[in-house]
Design goal:
Blueprint: E1 2-3, E2 6-18, E3 24-36, E4 38-43, E5 50-53, E6 56-58, H1 63-74, E7 81-86, H2 97-112, H3 119-129, H4 135-138, E8 142-146, E9 150-153, E10 162-167, H5 174-179, H6 190-196, H7 199-202, H8 209-217, H9 219-230, E11 235-238, E12 245-249, H10 255-259, E13 265-270
Amino acid sequence: MIYFPNSKINIGLNIISKRNDGFHNIETILYPLSLCDILEVRPKQIGNTSLEVSNMIIEDENLCLKAYNLLKKNYPHLPEVSIHLIKNIPSQAGLGGGSSDAAFTLKLLNSECELNLSELELEKFARELGSDCAFFIYNIPCYAYEKGDKFYNTTLSLRGKTILLVKPNISISTAEAYSEVVAQKTEYNLLNIVENLPIAQWRHFIKNDFEKTLFKKYKELELIKDKMYEIGALYAQMSGSGSTIYGLFDRDLTPDEINLFDYPFVCNRILK
């Protein structure tokens, strides 16, 4: 069976406080996108479970293998499988590609191996793999809080809006992003703003706390964001802790506007 693990963007990202377990309490809006990887799992007759990513054999335990091993630990009868993953979502980009791949691995194994796990049970396993992973079990727009793995539904819809994703040749790990960030409580209600204010007003209230330090280190990211506004973005922001800048528009973009962003990854989509 073939699944299509999709990406996401963050709308706002506030680092509220440092936790005793070493993580941070955050708040953000997670919104799914149609940009996706391709994931296939096949039964394996000989040998141990393996992972092939875009035609390269991966021996290190990445999130897909961790997802398999987590289920195998709890369900010893789980058969050995061959996992094939084609990457379209760039890595360390703030688009949740790795987390989505892991969550969809759980869902695919649950279906193919007839484990009969509920979404709530899958969410519990996903939470063990990483904060973003649990989001992709339900895969609907939501307000995320605590470690980013607790969710509250939102009425926000970006249907019909155009999104432009731009990732320069910069990769930012989660550890790097958090290394210099300063936790602080917010002065605005993120959920209330996205549900009640026009998108064009978001820029006056909503922020991504990672931008303050990462824009100083990677000037190119701020230039991309500024250019998004120059060509008429209603709202623009860095997504998550990665290096993708996105812009939301209420119209189609012209080829000339898209070509202004001459970077390794540029993706123009209409949100569904």
